[in-house]
Amino acid sequence: MKSALERIVVAVALFGFFAGPAWADSMLSMTRADGKTVQVTLQELMDLQATEISTSTEWTDGVQTFRGVAFDLLFDTYGLNAETVRVSALNDYSVMVPANVLREDGAILAYHLNGGEMSVREKGPFWVIFPYDADEQFQTDTYWAYSVWQVKSVDAAN
Fold first, then answer.
1. What are the tens digits of pLDDT across the range 45-75?
2. Which of 120, 126, 135, 145 has the most CB within a 10 Å radius?
3. Is residue 57 helix, strand or coil?
């Protein structure tokens, strides 16, 4: 009896570890400069106009195709108006990014990698992506630091 119970506990724990985070974390927290926070679902992001970037990265092999929402559209849609925003990851890594860099340098908040949703294990559910191959300026430590993966929030109130 104890052995069967132990197996069930292990199975539930593994399911929660591997599957749960991919579903539960497909929510993005967006905080405006006035402090109002909106929770945005993956589906809501996918309903916005999508942008694709095919590029190589420091963290993947070869050219990958990322699909997501351009930051200018994201900021305009959810009313994020600030000079800088804090982009935070599930592991609590965060970085302050000038909003104009995200708006003007072609960055997207990616939600698909090569046509599929990104699990937490694959740096998802959301990843800040720049067109790294388009210009050497994107292949610097500054832009690598801006390229947060496993994004959980974008905060204009900082």
1. 999 999 999 999 999 999 999 999 999 999 9
2. 126
3. coil
**Distance, CA of 30 to CA of 83 (rounded, Å):** 15
Count other Cβ atoms within 10 Å, centred on residue 144: 14
Instruction: State the Cα–Cα distance between residues 70 and 28, nearest whole angstrom.
Output: 15
What is the C-alpha separation between 40 and 32, in angstroms, rounded? 13
Q: Point out which residues pair with 33 in neighbouring strands.
A: none
Please give the Cα distance from 52 to 39 (Å, whole number). Answer: 23
Distance CA 103, CA 77 (A): 13
CA 15 distance to own-chain centroid: 23
Tokens 């200018």 locate to 72
What mean pLDDT do residues 109-126 have?
Answer: 94
Six token digits for residue 118: 């990104």
Is the entire prediction scored with pTM above 0.85?
Answer: no
